[in-house]
Amino acid sequence: MTGQGAVPVRDAATVILTRDGLAGPEVLMGQRGKTAAFMPDKFVFPGGAVDEADACIALARPIGPACAARLAQGADPALAHALAVAAVRELWEETGLILGTAGDWPGAAPGDWQGFAATGHRPDARGLRYVFRAITPPGRPRRFDARFFLADVGAIAGDAEDFSRAEDELSHLHWVPVATARKLNLPFITEVVLAEVAALIGGAEPPESVPFFDNSGPVSAFRRIA
């Protein structure tokens, strides 16, 4: 989709990975660089824009039908698949963690996926739950139509503390107690998402509706996707 002015709005996927900690639920976060064009120096969840090739990647298991139906509302149905693939890919690239199932790829893995495939896993979106959507307001150097996915650490293959295979886009990757996460330098939208999903952490079903922070028009609106 395109937004107001010259800045296009790109579809994007973000993963809120959770686990039980000693002080209660925890989420995985990292810090963007001081010179980053978008949200510099902020602590964020792993995520990024959908790549054109994401639509062509086969998943070992797709995202659940209820989430897929909501993702497809008002969009090309194929976008739901691409968003789920992007979520798995971005988590891998930014943290080195594998949201996948052991198995051989159906063919040669594309360049962006060769490292993932080399671990002996295929991308698996079954553990993702679609829980939030937000469009970046006008006037920002980059704009995204971001869909946020909640996933439990149990869906990760391997050690959830091992970030050694992560690329360098995020630093200070660590598990943060939800109760104290707001003390970090967070973007406004991350604070909103944390507040909305806190009650969902630990559950297994999609929410009854998905909050949507809609900045697609001249007036911001907070909606819900049924």
Distance between the termini: 21 Å
Helix share bin? 10-25%
Shape descriptor: globular
> How would you characterize the largest beta sheet?
9 strands, mixed
By CATH reckoning, the class would read: Alpha Beta
Number of domains: 1
Oligomer: single chain
Overall structural class, as computed from helix and strand content, comes to alpha+beta
Low-pLDDT stretches: none
H/E series: EEEEHHEHEEEEHEE
Describe this protein's structure.
This protein has 226 residues and is α+β, with helices and mostly antiparallel strands. It has a single domain (9-225), classed as Nucleoside Triphosphate Pyrophosphohydrolase (Alpha-Beta Complex). The protein is built from 4 helices and 11 strands. The protein has helices at residues 65-71, 78-95, 114-118, 188-197, and strands at 9-21, 24-32, 43-44, 47-49, 100-102, 121-123, 129-135, 143-152, 170-177, 210-214, 221-225. A hairpin with a 2-residue loop joins strand 1 (9-21) and strand 2. The model has no long low-confidence stretch (mean pLDDT 92).
